């Protein structure tokens, strides 16, 4: 039996058009919208780096060049800041380009999340890897991804993050039927259903945008027919692996109980900005004071 390989690669699909934020995203990738003073995508890359993933592949599309530029060095800007003696801003600029080895590949014709993950096959090779969705903003203080990596290394299968949602919202998610694993903090996934009707959902445990996958998923994705919406669904491929046997079979789930924001949704995005800003030492006190007064005002 081959020794399991340590996980060092992360895949971040970022080819979406961001139509929910038009016109702001007409010429600016939605992933570059700032959460306080850093683009949302940087938090995702930082999360991967924090979990020890040093090789990061971003799946992009047309009009996404700003993503590559953000994680690249900018010699002119750096020289300008250094000449001014602005060490704080210089360090902030360096931070984004020092997070890891960044790679980029274009998805071409977007055909769903499963298709986007499949675009990473040649880069990932025969290694387990993580997938982080840019719209899912996890509390930076949590170590969800590290926990998922540990479960993958222990089980040898694939791991998804799930969280309890209001039953009225299950039709917006992939939903799992799962059973506890004795003596463990994770659960075994018996079935996954993509965006079920409320009355057909096997539970209210919804899959959120963090995965740690066995490379066998690439073979399954190649043979996965388009599903809901005419797209190749990663959920369908994981359902196949959940029912499979042999190396790389089995799907497990870590139940996340921390804070999560869908930064692809306008209201959730605003909540993320306000939450993080209110917790910062430089902005929090004044912002919380202002919010207290603002919320006390009668609505117009």
Structure characterization notes:
The chain has 300 residues and is of the alpha/beta class. Helices cover 34% and strands 22% of the residues. The chain has helices spanning 40-50, 65-70, 75-84, 87-97, 113-118, 121-124, 144-155, 216-222, 234-243, 266-278, 284-296, and strands at 9-13, 34-35, 38-39, 55-60, 101-106, 129-132, 136-138, 158-164, 174-180, 187-194, 205-213, 251-255, 260-262. The mean pLDDT is 90. It is built from eleven helices and 13 strands. The chain has two domains: 9-264, Spore Coat Polysaccharide Biosynthesis Protein SpsA, Chain A (Alpha-Beta Complex); 265-295, no CATH class. 37% of the residues are buried. Helix 3 (75-84) packs antiparallel against helix 4 and helix 8 (216-222) crosses helix 9 (234-243).
What composes the largest sheet? 9 strands, mixed
Q: Can you say what the CATH homologous superfamily of the largest domain is?
A: Spore Coat Polysaccharide Biosynthesis Protein SpsA, Chain A
The helix-strand sequence is EEEHEHHHEHHEEHEEEEHHEEHH
**Low-confidence region ranges:** none
Q: How many independent structural domains? A: 2
Number of strands: 13
Q: Determine Rg (CA atoms, Å).
A: 20 Å
CATH class category of the largest domain: Alpha Beta
Oligomer: single chain
Name the structural class: alpha/beta
Strand share of the residues?
A: 15-25%
Q: How is the largest sheet built, in terms of strand order? A: 5-4-1-6-11-8-12-10-9
CATH topology of the largest domain: Spore Coat Polysaccharide Biosynthesis Protein SpsA, Chain A
Query: CATH architecture of the largest domain, please?
Result: Alpha-Beta Complex
GO molecular function, one term: UTP:glucose-1-phosphate uridylyltransferase activity
Organism: Falsarthrobacter nasiphocae
Protein name: UTP--glucose-1-phosphate uridylyltransferase
Domain Nucleotidyl transferase: 9-276
């Amino acid at each position: 039996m081959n020794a399991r390989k340590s996980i060092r690669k992360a895949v971040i699909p970022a080819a979406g058009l961001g139509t929910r934020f038009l016109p702001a995203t007409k010429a600016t990738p939605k992933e570059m919208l700032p959460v306080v003073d850093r683009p949302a995508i940087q938090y995702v890359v930082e999360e991967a780096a924090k979990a020890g993933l040093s090789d990061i592949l971003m799946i992009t599309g047309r009009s996404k060049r700003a993503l590559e530029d953000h994680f690249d060095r900018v010699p002119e800007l750096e020289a300008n800041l250094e000449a001014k003696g602005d060490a704080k801003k210089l360090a902030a600029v360096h931070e984004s380009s020092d997070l890891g080895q960044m790679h980029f590949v274009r998805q071409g014709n977007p055909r769903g999340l499963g298709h986007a993950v499949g675009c990473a096959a040649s880069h990932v090779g025969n290694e387990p890897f993580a997938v982080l969705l840019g719209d899912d903003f996890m509390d930076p203080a949590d170590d969800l991804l590290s926990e998922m990596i540990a479960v993958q290394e222990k089980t040898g299968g694939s791991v998804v993050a799930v969280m309890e949602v209001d039953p009225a919202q299950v039709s917006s998610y992939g939903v799992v039927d799962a059973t506890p694993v004795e003596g463990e903090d994770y659960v075994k996934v018996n079935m996954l259903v993509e965006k079920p009707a409320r009355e057909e959902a096997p539970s209210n445990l919804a899959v959120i945008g963090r995965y740690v996958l066995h490379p066998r998923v690439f073979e399954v994705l190649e043979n996965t027919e388009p599903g809901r919406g005419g797209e190749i669904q990663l959920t369908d491929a994981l359902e196949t692996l959940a029912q499979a046997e042999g190396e790389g079979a089995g799907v497990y789930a870590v139940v996340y109980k921390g804070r999560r924001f869908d930064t692809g949704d306008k209201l959730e995005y605003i909540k993320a900005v306000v939450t993080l800003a209110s917790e910062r030492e430089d902005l929090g006190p004044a912002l919380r004071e202002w919010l207290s007064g603002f919320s006390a005002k009668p609505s117009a």
